[in-house]
Design brief:
This protein is mainly α. It is built from 8 helices and 5 strands. The strands form 2 sheets. It has a 3-stranded mixed sheet, with no helix packed on it. Strands 4-5 form a two-stranded antiparallel sheet. The protein is elongated.
Length: 256
């Protein structure tokens, strides 16, 4: 069992580090590969896009996080990353529907979000039991003691490692200008984040909502479904656009 020094202020410290690192990373990605994606987003949306994003993310983070934590043994208000992501998606999709915006607009957020989770989950770990994100007891040799003498699954590190793996694959995709990374990375990220977190939720002592599933299980399934459906829809739209381009008559009246 590994003893982990904990302090409640660690969460805030790592959150700030995650935000600043994500901001710097977004600038680096823009200069490297995301300039075209960012410029395309700027042509499609206005300031209302970011208002809709914040209006969805902030209340959903606190509402869904608190709905879960208020059912626990020690009721308290809290916020949730998966709640913020789900709320942001809802807010943005409503905005896009109202403005007639089509296609993915989340590409610029993929790298910063993934890096933010990688760093931020260390804050959850070092914040200890007070953070409420600890895992269930286990006898595994890598179990962590957060101050109560009980070995627990380091679910925070599981999630951090899973998103670090995604980030490595995503950066490789950008380096090779793969279509999924350049144009549909946000949908892939949502699917992967939802899938890996769905697995780790079984290792958390959260109150069950439906059978063996807690609230976050349900949200994660929603993210997986969203990522899959929108990824496939975007691919179909891309293929149709290519087919239309190939069928345009050339100067000799032959398809080009």
């Amino acid at each position: 069992m590994i003893e982990v020094p904990t302090a409640p202020w660690a969460h805030t410290a790592f959150d700030l580090t995650a935000w600043l690192s994500g901001l710097a990373f977004s600038v680096a990605l823009y200069r490297w590969r995301m300039r075209e994606t960012a410029d395309r987003l700027a042509r499609k949306v206005d300031g209302g896009y970011f208002v809709a994003l914040a209006a969805g993310a902030i209340p959903a983070a606190w509402l869904l996080g608190s709905v879960n934590s208020l059912q626990g043994a020690h009721p308290a208000l809290s916020h949730s990353v998966v709640g913020a992501l789900a709320g942001a998606i809802l807010g943005v999709e409503i905005y896009k529907l109202a403005r007639g915006v089509t296609g993915s607009t989340g590409g610029v957020f993929v790298g910063p979000f993934a890096l933010g989770v990688v760093i931020g989950r260390f804050g959850c770990l070092f914040a200890g039991l007070a953070d409420g994100t600890y895992g269930t007891p286990t006898a595994r040799p890598w179990a962590v003691d957060l101050g109560d003498g009980i070995g627990r699954h380091p679910v925070q590190l599981y999630e951090s490692a899973a998103m670090a793996l995604f980030l490595a694959v995503y950066l490789e995709g950008l380096a090779r200008r793969r279509s999924w990374a350049m144009t549909r990375g946000f949908y892939v990220m949502c699917g992967w984040y939802g899938l890996q977190r769905f697995a780790w939720e079984f290792l958390k002592p959260y109150p069950r909502l439906l059978g063996p599933f807690n609230l976050f299980h349900i949200l994660c399934l929603g993210l997986v479904a969203y990522g899959w459906v929108y990824y496939q829809r975007d691919r179909r739209a891309e293929r149709l656009a290519q087919e239309r381009a190939l069928s345009v008559p050339g100067s000799d009246h032959q398809p080009v």
